[in-house]
Amino acid sequence: MTTNQLDASQFNRDRHFETDIVIIGSGAGGGIAAEQLTQAGYKVLLLEEGAYYTRDNFVMEERWAYPNLYQEGAARKTLDKSIGILQGRTVGGSTTVNWTTSIRTPQPTLEYWQREFGLDFSNENDLTPFFEKAEQRLNIHQWPVPPNANNAKLQQGCEKLGWQYTVIKRNVNGCANLGYCGMGCPINAKQSMLVSTIPAALAQGATLISRLSVRKLHWQNDRITGVDAVPVDSHFQPRQDIHVSIVAKHYIVAAGAIGSPALLLRSKVPDPSGRLGKHTYLHPTVISGALFADDINGHSGAPQSIYSDQFVWPDTDNIPGYKLEVPPLHPVLMATKLIGTGAEHAALMQNFNQLQVVIALQRDGFHPQSQGGTVQLDQQQQPVLDYPISDYVWQGMREALLSMAELQFAAGAKQVLPIHHDAKLYNSWPEAKAAIAALPMENLRQTVVSAHVMGGCNMSAEPTKGVVNQDGRHHQLKNLSIFDGSILPTSLGANPQLTIYALVWRNCQHLLASLLPMAKS
Amino acid sequence: MDRRQFLISGIALGAAASLGVAGWHYSVQPNSDNRDWVLSAILPALLYDALPEDTTLAIAQLQRSKTAVADFIAFLPLSQQQELQQLFNLLAQRITELAFTGHLTTLSALSINQRLAILQQWRDSYLTTLQQAYHGLRELLYGAYYGQPEHWQPLAYTAPKFR
């Protein structure tokens, strides 16, 4: 291990570091910032709670990937256990384990932010040049290979029904179409932060400390004065025996939309808007399985290559609107989500290769009855998200189950299984339609999952309506920026990685302009 | 109960079998026998239809799953580990009570179907804690079982190997 890659779990005494800029978190936000700020000549220290695992560690097995690369072993749940959350915790953050879907921020979302939060991303603030930069840096292109059968069924259903669909752009280079993106790319094809911006930053002099959990920011008046951190143990639990302190001129929090608000809450930073840790959005997602006569083999091939925006922006105001995609199908992911026990569950698993799955992501945060969740701290000061699901969102989920079943039958499914604990395999669209209309939409009956966590430190033009300004600078603390998905004021209605890349790239340019007087080390 | 059921239900209990139905003991401490006891009661029922015909292989798969559960729990946040331990304590007590009601003398006498019925009761309970227990254990145990490449034969699935 070279001297600018440190593993905090190997520290055997207290340590102190001084730097120009410290970045807390190495995901989509921290990764982009590390490269930009290092390139500009600043001394950068990049901190990550997860481990520095690379290609050689990625064995394409869920039993290794989930505990080692995901928050809470990929078993993170909301407070009442009704929503499961997939979120990365490793060098590169969720970019190391995501499914590579790269979508620019939808225009209606930006317009809503302007109306509600005074955020102007038009004219000289247009994000287009930053989308282009990120797309070039991470080799984001439309996927030229035919979709795998799991995605092809989504496309065929849309074609049959006359619904909109799009071929997905992916951040890959030399992709072998394996299908194991969620367990870490074993051939470095995925252009995650792990293989792009982070190695570039390290090559130019940045330092990475992995397995380090930042516990607290110290602050006085309008400035952050230092950081307290501790190593984590082999199970990623924060340790008590060794302490690490860090002093920087500027502080960037990029610990994700659960981790960043949690750190700021632990630090009791000023929160005059009352929005810190509030309005956390999830794209709460429901699932529909279908059995086909032919093999689907949903474990193989690019996990996501087709989406449908047919229902994202509905004319009605009664439901949130939802995006249709598919997930990769792997044994643990399927076994834990398929319903039932005993013989029923075993029979479904035996049809593993004939199973096709569609997911519907609710666009939360655009309605008074969709105000998201709240990050709380448990006894160990670790974050827990309380996300109550409103009737308005439940209604969107029911509509989504209907759309997915209709689509799957249109694509030729023999049977459709909405992933709801009172559902069963239905043999026709009319049968499914009647049954779904009667399903109780309730916690722990309707399975709900999320792979996109957004908000909790939202940006706003006015300090009364958010935690940071449009440049990601904290409204009250002058030398603090928040550069990750937590600054989004709503969900996006699209997979978030490219939005975060572009926003943070832009925010780094604004930060650099304001830092010019700051002497570089 | 047929002979295979009896062997799988009983032998998977391992050391806990000797505790009989009175095996539950009050504890708020982690690392008690209650976790092992609850897993011994539930795993054979959840997985019975997924296990191979060969009884020896089936028992090995159950033991492998139990080990995987224990290995995985260490990665959960401490608050969740504590919650799980309280849950195992509560469930051990409830299984014991149910077994006594049925005049059983050992846990291994509880059939697979009786155990599945207990799980269904938790799923449909008016108590949120028991509903959470059903879903939490289901995910934990199915995740542990289907995470093992040795258990993938019925799925006709193998993960690609690069190195």
Helical residues, percent of chain B: 55-70%
Which regions of chain A are unreliable across 5 or more consecutive residues at pLDDT < 50?
none
| SSE order of chain B, one letter for each helix or strand | HHHHHH
Q: Looking at the structure, what is the overall shape of chain A?
A: globular
Helix content of chain A: 25-40%
Measure the end-to-end span of chain B: 45 Å
pLDDT average of chain A, as an integer? 97
Query: Approximately what portion of the residues of chain A adopt beta-strand conformation?
Result: 15-25%
* Structural Rg of chain B: 16 Å
What class, by secondary structure content of chain A?
A: alpha/beta
The number of helical elements of chain A comes to 12
Structural category of chain B is mainly alpha
Low-confidence stretches of chain B: 14-28
Query: What oligomeric state is this?
Result: heterodimer
Can you put this structure into words, describing what you see?
The complex is a heterodimer of chains A (521) and B (163). Chain A has 521 residues and is α/β, with parallel strands linked by helices. Chain A is built from twelve helices and 23 strands. In chain A, the strands form six sheets. In chain A, strands 1, 2, 3, 9, 10, 11, 12 and 23 form an eight-stranded mixed beta sheet that branches. In chain A, strands 7-15-16-17-14-20 form a six-stranded antiparallel beta sheet, with helices on one face. Chain A is globular. In chain B, 60% of the residues lie in helices and 0% in strands. Chain B contains six helices and no strands. Chain B is globular. Chain B starts with a helix and ends in a 17-residue tail after the last helix. The interface between A and B is large, with 43 and 45 residues.
